[in-house]
Request: fold
Amino acid sequence: MSVLGFGLSIEPQLWALMFVMVRIGAAFIAAPVFSAVSIPVTVRVTLSGAIGVLVLAAHPVTPPAEIFAFATFLAVASEALVGFALGFILQIAFAAPMIASEVIGSSMGIGFASAIDPQNGRSTPALGQFFSMMLTLLFLSMNGHLVLVEMIVKSYDALPVGASWLTAQQLKDIAFFGGYTFLAGLLLALPVGFLLLCLNLVVGMLSRSAPALNLFAIGLPTSLAVGVVALALAFPAMGDYMMVIVTQGLAATQSLVLG
Reply:
């Protein structure tokens, strides 16, 4: 049966591939690493098509019979919603280093330092960009990108085409997972933030005991020096917790797909 109206036998297979690519492409738009502005759109579309071919080979996907129909638009919207949800969960976890950088940067006095983030193309704190790059490298070293692709493929079993609308409980779990971002960000900044808090207490006591002392000339260099040393000492522990953040993000994605 012709789908696009040209009478070609390849049309049903092409329409099925395009329909499958909706969920995969939506996941790549929202997911970290894949959504980076440095990755060309052509690469993302090609990768979505390649994974779509594998999905069609492993799962019997039956697309809607008609393209320009209200039921088809609803099916495409549901597929896009599932893909966005899969990628957005990981994006939530990747926001934790930005919160940690805001806490540490404001205490160190380098909150004004910013640079262009290669992930989203916007200006972000320099310390946050450093944390994001480290988290991205850990994500790739733990094969997180392969786990994401695996979850997308498995989602066609748990959320089949035509019955892939997310339930209210699943949407609630995604919203509540956003609270983990603030928790993870504060825990990530805890080692350095605690030392800087102690330093601010000492500087506050000095300002009360010696009001004539120019603390602006002493406090900022001291905070910067203590912050750099604290980052160097605490970074192994922060790296371990970044691995926990990646693990929690992948576990939340798996929970969405497999329940």
